[in-house]
Structures are given as C-alpha cells and as structure tokens.
Amino acid sequence: MSDGRLYEAATSLRATPWRTFWTVTIPGARYGLVSAAFVVFNLVITDFGLPKVIGGQFNVLAVDIYKQVIGQQNFEMGAVVSVVLVLPAILAFAIDRFVQSKQVALLSARSVPYQPKPNKKADWILFSYASLVGIFIVGMLAVCQFAALVKFWPYDLSFSLNNYQFDRMDGGGWGAYYNSIKLGLLTAIIGTAIIFFGAYLVEKSNGFRTGRAIFQMFAMLPMAIPGMVLGLAYIFFFNNPANPLHAIYGTMAILVVCTVTHFYTVSHLTATTALQQMDREFESVSASLKQPTLKLFGRVTVPVCLPSILDISIYLFVNAMTTVSAVVFLYSPTTSLASIAVLNMDDAGDIAPAAAMGMMIFYTNAGARIFHLIASRGILSRTQAWRNR
Questions:
Q1: Per-residue pLDDT tens for 124-168?
Q2: Where are the alpha helices (DSSP H) in 149-239?
Q3: What whole-number distance in Å separates Cα of residue 68 and Cα of residue 105?
Q4: Is 43 exposed, middle or buried (0-12, 13-18, 19+ CB in 10 A)?
Q5: Distance, first Cα to last Cα, the chain
Q6: DSSP string spanning 7-20?
Q7: 302 CB contacts (<8 Å, ≥6 apart)?
Q8: Cβ contact 337:331 at 8 Å
Q9: Do the beta carbons of residue 140 and residue 359 sit within 8 Å?
Q10: CA angle, 176 as apex, 171 and 179 as ends, to 5°?
C-alpha cells in the first residue's frame, strides 16, 4: 500500500530507481519487514516437525521436549525446557507488537494508489526469480511423490503402490488419515463459530467493554506459545482425574480444543479486521428500528463478513491437517492423526510410506482449497453483490 505521489515526486526530482527504492519503498514497508522477520523467527524456533525428521544429531529445544517426555517420561524436565523455549518466543512476539504499535497509516483520503509502470527487463528478472522459487517448491513435492511410488527408496526405484497400504505400517493406518479429516472439519466448523463470535463480542458488543482489553490480550497469546508447550500444558491440566474436564482426555474433543487454541490468534485478527471495516451505524440503526441484535448479526454482520469467515474456516482446516507439535502429546491409539503417522513411520524407517502419507495430506489440503475457492465464488456472488453497486 503506497502513495503514488511519493514516486511521482521522486521521478520529478530525478532520483534513480535504486535511491527511490531505499528512500520511499523500504521506509514504507519497514514495519511489515520487521513483523515478517519476527514471525519467521517464532515459526522456526518453535517448529518441531522439520528438525525432528531432517535435523539428524542437531538438537533443538522443541525436539528436546519431545525426547524428555516421550523418550524418557521425564515430564518435569520437559516442562523446564518448555519454559526456556517460551521465553524467546514471547520476547520476539512482544517486540513485534511494540513495532506494530508504532505503525501509522501511509494512505490518506488524498492519496493516489501507486500503479507501477511496466518494465520488461525488471519484470522478466523478477519473474525468473519467482519461477526459481516456485520450481524449488514444486521439485520438493515431486521428489516426495516419486518416493511414495517406488518399492524401496532409494535402492529399488521400480514403481509400486505398496507404500499406500498404511494399515500394514506403523503409525495408525488409514484410520489416522480419516481422523485428520475429521479433526480438520470439526476444527473448521467449531473453531470458526467460536472465534468469530468472540471477535464480535470484542468489536461490536457494548456490554463487553470492561473485558475487551483482557480478552484481546488472551487472544494474542497463542501466537507466542509454541505448540509443544501448549500440548504439554494440556497434559498437565486434563490428565488430572480430579479435573471435571478429564473425560475429554484422549478423545477427539481435546485435539479439537487444542488445535483451535493453537491457531486462534491469526483467525481472531482476521475476524476483528473484517468487523472493524463495518460502520457502527449498523448497530445504531438496528437499535432505532427496535430490531434484536441476533437478527442484525444473522442478516447483516455475517453476510458482510462472509469472505473472512470462509478464509478462517479453510485456514483452520489446513492447519489441523498438518499440525504435529500441538497434538503430538495428546493423541491416543483411537485418535492417531495422519501428521503423527508420518512422524511415527519416519521413526520406524518407513520413509517411502511416510512420504505417501505426507502427499495424501497435501492432496487433501489442495482439494480443500479448490473446493473452498469454488464454493466461495458461488456463495459470495449471492451475498456480496452489494460490493459491486
């Protein structure tokens, strides 16, 4: 989001493209760059799946928590390492929020949206760069799919579908795959409803003003809490027989609760952003017409925010299908998941079957994205026609 007048001024002052980039573009994008850097830092320092599978002897804190709890049944030491892991994650998150609080709007009512002029040379160079990145990503997926279709990677490369006989492998079989789909659907449906209603209370409810700041703070916390720490905390809390909620321990319900909590923050921000775009005049008009709040919510708020609601649902589904760290401590023999099956098959040396299960997760998410795109177009064409008037 840039003001085109700044670039016009740079051109009139005969500034070179390089100087314009450093004096106009970078200063305008600095908050986004800083935020992106801290997001990457948090994602990497708290990641478990990648270092567990390809890290070898290079130990990281998330894997050490797994070894302490699963390998040695030393829950106390796992909790200690969790606290050590939480500290840099929360510090990075706090700095990111502080930097974002300094950001100001760069576009005013008089601003002119920046429209870059075509530059064939620069366009082809950047297109080539983007293509290399794309080819690398597709290449990784292609290698994984190839490994899933050979008899014995990497020694017997003749094609076979034996790797898809998951019921003969360690990890939970096809049942784990179906459990992941069930978890994804439940998380998307229940999580979207809870998150959007919570965001509505924060943004639109007059009776919720006193607790708004506290609720907003708690809604931000999950982004700073690593999945491993969250899963371990759920063990300590729900595995106590004296806890009335102990009944959901080891069931699909606790996996849904944990997954919704783990990915709450991004979904909450998406919902609040959509609600903030709605003028508060809607509530005033509804009150003057003596219409119930529930009717306003169902006939105005939800239809207007439907694009964001659909985005939240697909976000939760995809992440529920791929999450490992948040649920690795919480699944039971009857609720094993496809992502956990990949981990267990890799531990057992079944590399090709693990690749096959990984590709099943990928194709399921790709199919869900395509279905979401098609369904969104049909639904939004009926509910968002007012935007084109």
A1: 999 999 999 999 999 999 999 999 998 887 788 888 888 898 888
A2: 173-204, 209-224, 227-238
A3: 47
A4: exposed
A5: 24
A6: HHHHHHTT--HHHH
A7: 309
A8: yes
A9: no
A10: 155
Q: Is 343 in contact with 328 (CB distance < 8 Å)? A: yes
Distance CA 286, CA 304 (A): 15
- List the one residue out of 346, 123, 89 whose CA is nearest residue 220: 89
User: Which residues, in sequence order, are CB contacts of 83 under 8 Å at separation 6+?
Assistant: none
Residue with tokens 């981990």: 343
Other beta carbons within 10 angstroms of residue 143's beta carbon come to 12
List pLDDT tens digits, range 355-379: 999 999 999 999 999 999 988 887 7
Residue 159 makes CB contacts below 8 A (sequence gap 6+) with: 149, 150, 151
Q: Which tokens sit at 11?
A: 């051109």
Closest to 148 (Cα-Cα) out of 159, 140, 137, 156: 159
The rounded distance, in Å, linking the Cα atoms of 308 and 272 is 10
Q: What is the pTM of this model?
A: 0.82
At 168, list the tokens: 């003969």
The residues, ordered by sequence, that sit 6+ positions from 139 with a Cβ below 8 Å of its Cβ are none
Structure tokens at 297: 């919510």
Token duo for residue 16? 């070179």
Residue matched to tokens 């994205």: 369
Q: Considering only CA atoms, which of 276, 278, 303, 300 is closest in space to residue 289?
A: 300
97 burial class (0-12, 13-18, 19+ CB within 10 angstroms)?
middle
DSSP 8-state class, residue 109: T
